[in-house]
Write a structure and sequence with these properties.
This protein is of the alpha/beta class. The protein has one domain: Nucleoside phosphorylase domain (Rossmann fold, 3-Layer(aba) Sandwich). The chain contains six helices and eight strands; from the N terminus they run E-E-H-E-E-H-E-H-E-H-E-H-H-E. A five-stranded mixed barrel has the order 3-6-5-4-7, surrounded by four helices. Helix 1 packs across helix 4 and helix 2 packs across helix 5. It is globular, with a radius of gyration of 18 Å. The structure holds the ligand O=P(O)(O)O[C@@H]1C[C@H](O)[C@@H](CO)O1 and hypoxanthine. The site of hypoxanthine has 13 residues, from strand 3, strand 6 and strand 7. The site of the ligand O=P(O)(O)O[C@@H]1C[C@H](O)[C@@H](CO)O1 has 11 residues, from strand 3 and helix 5. Pathway: Purine metabolism; purine nucleoside salvage. Its EC number is 2.4.2.1. This is purine-nucleoside phosphorylase.
């Protein structure tokens, strides 16, 4: 479901849940919502996820601002014929996560006294959690945390020039000394604990981040239905992409 609302003067649409490659969806299906949101006029994408931490400075419940990612997913969302209407064949990935939004989020975190880290997220297929050797590999490869989502959506967002901010909640530590066991239940519980701070941070980021009125050319691909929707949304549209358990 897409949930429409406002935060301050900003219009927000949130995806209630997301699709994962491990669930059997193709990468095109996983990333389709991002394309739809872009054509609804969304300017900024905020992605969140739960991940396993391999950086020893993290602990369960840490909020990590994603500064970069490593794509270790088995299929690329842009594989196949490129549709130039969406974006170029070869996409510049030198700034997948907006430096400006990262700086603003850090500033807000400091003001609100919320502890945040930054780090590199590595995306694996899942659905298995990593073996201890795989966690070690993730660390050696230069990542700080590992998960099973986000990377495909961010690639497609960059393809369409959607400015993106990403945040990860560390729900388990994949470190050989401290790892006990990890289950989805623990992931949900740890994510829930981080929810109040994450909610404050993201809300404030949405309020403070710059937005622009929709440009006329953002309308040209909209269907009649979308056109009406567009008019309801008027000026600012932002996209808040939080898994259901954060709401
Ligand atoms: O959708 P995300 O990446 O936040 O969810 C993580 C990865 C798996 O879907 C699930 C494992 O518990 O949490
Ligand atoms: O340790 C993890 N590995 C992969 N995905 C995850 N999602 C939450 N925790 C993890």
């Amino acid at each position: 479901a897409l949930v429409f609302g406002t935060i301050g003067v900003k219009k927000v649409v949130a995806m209630q849940g997301r699709f994962h490659f491990y669930e059997g969806y193709s990468m095109k299906e996983v990333t389709f919502p991002v394309r739809v949101l872009k054509y609804l006029g969304v300017e900024k994408l905020i992605v969140s996820n739960a991940s396993g931490g391999v950086n020893p400075n993290y602990k369960v419940g840490s909020i990590v601002i994603i500064k970069d990612h490593i794509n270790f997913m088995p299929e690329h969302p842009l594989r196949g014929k490129n549709d130039e209407r969406f974006g170029p064949r070869f996409v510049n990935m030198s700034e997948p996560y907006s430096v400006e939004m990262i700086a603003k989020a850090k500033e807000i975190a400091q003001e609100l006294n919320i502890e945040v880290h930054d780090g590199v997220y590595l995306g694996l297929q899942g659905p298995t959690f990593e073996t201890l050797s795989e966690y070690r590999m993730v660390k050696i490869l230069g990542a700080d945390c590992v998960g099973m989502s986000t990377v495909p959506e961010v690639i497609v967002a960059r393809h369409m020039e959607l400015e993106t901010f990403g945040v990860s909640i560390i729900t388990d530590m994949g470190d050989e000394e401290s790892i006990l066991s990890v289950s989805h239940k623990e992931v949900l519980e740890a994510a829930k604990k981080a929810e109040p701070n994450l909610r404050k941070l993201v809300k404030e980021l949405i309020v403070r981040v710059n937005g622009h009125p929709l440009k006329p050319n953002q309308m040209h691909c909209l269907s009649i239905f979308e056109w009406h929707l567009h008019h309801c949304l008027k000026w600012y549209i932002q996209f808040l992409y939080l898994p259901t358990f954060f709401w």
